[in-house]
Amino acid sequence: MIYEYPEIDAPIRQGDIFYSVPRVELSLRELPVITTDPEAQPMSWEELARAGQPVTALLGLRPVKAIVASQDCDVLLGPDITLCEIREFRDVYPPCAETTKPSSWVNVITQHSRVNLKWFYLPPDEGIGFTERMAVDFAVTIRVPQEDLQEHRRLRVGRLNAVADEHFRERLGECFRRYPYDEWYPLRRDELEAYMAKNPHVQPFPWQRAGGDGADRRA
Q1: What confidence category does residue 40 fall into, taking pLDDT thresholds of 50, 70 and 90?
Q2: At 166, phi and psi to the nearest 5?
């Protein structure tokens, strides 16, 4: 498919895929702090930050699949390497959960991938260990010290080939420089109601609310 398999000692590059990358899971509301007091209770980050001193806390770690997002020059010279988490496609893009027909998958993979800039599709391939359709979730980034990841290159299971890497690099750039476009702004109120049925999180603009006369009164 779109993957290749570098030697274990090959330099790390953008598009390298790793297994068992540690993703930190924490709650800013309750951080278990390590102290000499056996009665110590979890504290909020606000309480800890107010003290202005470093603390040692217990944090959860979960092994995840991830892909190197840092550019090659940053991988070589930077102190840290940034990766994006890889998850099953249906988790990253829930609308595809009921997709079954090949023609429908063609639509999702080709057309939707051009307009949905928050993920990058990865096809299944036994060689790399993807038994399901997968996707890179650009919203979830993980930072790992460069020296540490270099020492754990055995966790790398492959990388994107040259063609896929070009598309990945372009999609990555588009995601992080995209304009926050409110696509529903020109809809009439009846159209907006239909739109909000599938997107309940959106807020109507003043001219879309009941009693609006079409003028922008936000000023």
Answers
A1: confident
A2: -60, -45
